[in-house]
Design goal:
heterodimer; A: 470 residues; alpha+beta; Jelly Rolls; 4 domains; 17-stranded mixed β-sheet; 4-stranded antiparallel β-sheet; 27 strands; 34% strand; B: 213 residues; mainly alpha; Arc Repressor Mutant, subunit A; 67% helix; elongated
């Protein structure tokens, strides 16, 4: 082995691409013995490492998959229309695909201008194509989902118009429906295998296959029979795959979020590159392209919003001691709730770790203090009470949650131990706290407050640690 | 969340494809099966993401390109014949798409990039999220500088070399896989890679000298 042959192979050698064992050994031996080749090997290694450092992992957001589904649906509709008219080629072109207006998807692929004209011309044809698909599926043994109860389920047409449907209507693959019921009545749909889907007002979904729907917005409650195992709900910010269960799933376009709550069975919930198994009694949420959060207990009921108004004011304050500054930093929530006068209430709270790696400060916070104040009036807001001094009751809860009686006009302090990492301090003075508070009355009233990042001016923050011995 | 792409990570992240499984899935896709298509998508989305992102350095365009490639795959599924490796088939679609796109963009994709070369481009600059306490401002600046320099150096490579380099170093393909996708001898992959490394080292020489350990 000489220098010329070694240098000829040096990049491949560094990359581990020399398949021939004896050649690799010879190069290794030469590099070991020859100073200039060793330097060259080091340079190659360093160059490649520096370039790799600039690289990034790239996982596309769920939006890409949702848009793919949309486009495939249109292509399929085009092919069917083409089959019927005897011109498959035309039907499979991009123009046919673009004739559809994906009104539910915010971002569209740009169509070159000349194609738009063609798209317009054949848009009527595309509408006919969708109708053709329906007929095609219905007559070839495709599935049908029956509308069994509840008012106001609309079938959304491709051209953006909608059509009211009646109980007994059967929806098929490719249909998009929207629940337009008023008040608390929900629309229920039943599959041939007796699995049911309940759509709350505003829920908007599409039937993709006999085992999959795409939820664009709103809340869907699914009760899946054993025959329906493997049922999937795709959303823009996550995907739920069911292994026999009952669950609700909510898509919030505003928050760019999908939340899932499982009552029985298990649901594998994926977003980005990660999948979390959510089991009975748990819930989780996925935002944007981020991994779903670690599932947490959802035994606390959903928020009955009609009970969260008027009367007294409950203030939640979560504070954390920052050892580097020697100060408590905090974030608070004002949650006006109905508090029956004079009645002591039992409050349950949970503070959970959001596992936000980016916000983790190793060793910064081991204990979190959750402060709750019940004021006699809803007028009481803000950070009006000093930390310490006022608290009359304290129930340490080693598991991070617990019960305490609350009485009007009193303030309370709890100390709960949870894993460090849920709270982040940003250097430079602005502080953020990520946290979730779930609170429940014995009477099943619940408050769930989810906070995203909320910068607060320093002036709002308590500056002293509460005195010991409360 | 953007993660730094280290060599060790690359080894782990190299997509785990199973050729037999891929072919079976594609035959189902050929029948119009969406679930099979989704399985293919999930297997290859990150690999195609790595390929396109390190050619255009633009997250939104990368997503558009991934989508276009999979749409082409869906359309091509009807004519799919399980004669070769599926991954080669898919990466060829991606490569052809890129070459067309590059021509359309006038050989300077970065010029059209909306979010290229933004300092600390990790998607957080304009987001409502608070800055992470992890990296300090100086490391963010240093990384942005590195990224800008690497991007510029890669953009300056001849098209054939940049393709081989990105496929090898970022997409994590082996030389023999690159040879199949580009339909060139493996020796050519090796020599293009070697030439690319030399050019890049020269382009980055100042950065490498300034950051000498």
């Amino acid at each position: 082995m000489d220098c010329i042959k070694t240098l000829d192979n040096i990049v491949a050698y560094v990359q581990g691409e020399i398949a021939d064992d004896s050649l690799r050994r010879d190069i290794a031996a030469h590099v070991q013995a020859c100073g200039s080749c060793r330097r060259e090997e080091g340079e190659v290694r360093r160059t490649l490492n520096v370039i790799q450092e600039a690289g990034e992992e790239f996982v596309p957001s769920n939006r890409v998959w949702m848009q793919l589904l949309e486009r495939i649906r249109i292509i399929k509709a085009g092919i069917t229309a083409g089959d019927k008219s005897g011109s498959v080629q035309t039907a499979t072109t991009v123009e046919t695909e673009q004739a559809y207006t994906p009104r539910l998807i915010a971002r569209r692929v740009t169509v070159p201008r000349p194609r738009r004209a063609i798209a317009l011309l054949i848009s009527i044809g595309a509408a006919a194509a969708v109708a053709a698909v329906i007929v095609y599926i219905a007559t070839t043994g495709g599935f049908a989902v029956e509308y069994v109860e509840g008012p106001g389920l609309a079938l959304i047409r491709d051209n953006g118009t909608s059509e009211k449907t009646d109980i007994g209507h059967k929806f098929v693959k490719g249909d998009i429906v929207e629940a337009r019921s008023v008040g608390s009545k929900n629309a229920m749909l039943r599959y041939p295998n007796d699995s049911t889907l309940t759509l709350e007002q505003g829920a908007n979904l599409e039937f993709i296959s006999e085992n999959a729907v795409k939820l664009y917005a709103g809340t869907l409650r699914a009760s899946i029979t054993p025959e329906g195992i493997g049922f999937k709900v795709w959303t823009e910010f996550g995907e739920a795959k069911v292994t026999g269960t009952e669950f609700t799933i909510t898509v919030s376009k505003e928050k760019r979020q999908t939340a899932i709550r499982v009552m029985t069975g298990e649901v594998a919930f994926s977003n980005g590159d990660e999948t979390r198994v959510v089991s009975a009694g748990s819930q989780t949420v996925a935002s944007g392209n981020a991994s779903p959060e670690k599932p947490f207990s959802s035994e606390l009921d959903e928020i009955p919003t009609q009970e969260l108004r008027g009367g007294h004011n409950i203030e939640l304050l979560m504070a954390v001691f920052d050892p580097s500054s020697g100060r408590y930093v905090s974030e608070s929530e004002n949650v006006p709730v109905e508090l029956p006068p004079g009645e002591p209430l039992r409050l349950r709270f949970l503070v959970r770790n959001l596992e936000n790696e980016a916000l983790r400060i190793p060793g910064a916070a081991e204990a979190y203090n959750l402060f709750v104040r019940v004021s006699p009036s809803a007028e009481t807001k803000g950070y009006q009470f000093p930390i310490g001094g006022e608290f009359t009751e304290e129930e340490p809860q080693p598991d991070g949650g617990g019960f305490v009686k609350l009485e009007s006009g009193q303030s309370y302090r709890f100390v709960c131990q949870i894993e460090p990492g849920a709270i982040g301090l940003v250097p430079g003075g602005t502080r953020y706290i990520y946290g979730v508070y779930n609170m429940k009355w014995e009477s099943k009233t619940a408050i769930a407050v989810k906070r995203a990042a909320m910068p607060r001016p320093d002036a709002d923050l308590p500056t002293e640690a509460p005195p010991e011995g409360h | 969340m953007v993660t730094c792409f280290t060599r060790a990570m690359k080894a782990r992240k190299q997509f785990a494809s199973d050729p037999g499984r891929d072919v079976k899935l594609m035959l189902r896709v050929k029948q119009g099966n969406i679930e099979a298509f989704e399985a293919i998508y999930n297997t290859y989305k990150a690999s195609l993401g790595a390929f396109f992102y390190h050619l255009v350095w633009d997250r939104s365009r990368t997503e558009d390109y991934i989508q276009e490639v999979f749409i082409r795959l869906w359309k091509a599924a009807g004519n799919y014949q399980p004669t070769g490796k599926f991954s080669t088939f898919l990466f060829q679609i991606a490569k052809n798409f890129w070459l067309n796109e590059r021509r359309k963009l006038g050989h300077d994709p970065a010029r059209f990039s909306l979010d290229a070369k933004i300092a600390g481009d990790d998607g957080s600059r304009f987001s409502s999220q608070p800055p992470s306490p992890g990296p300090t401002p100086s490391t963010v600046v240093a990384r942005a500088e590195l990224k800008a320099q690497v991007q510029e150096a890669l953009d300056s490579l001849p098209e054939k070399q940049s393709l081989v380099f990105v496929m090898s170093e970022f997409q994590g393909l082996k030389y023999h896989e690159i040879a199949e996708v580009l339909d060139i001898p493996i020796g050519t992959v090796k020599s293009r890679m070697a030439r690319a490394e030399k050019l890049l080292r020269k382009k980055l020489s100042r950065y490498l000298a300034d950051h000498q350990r």
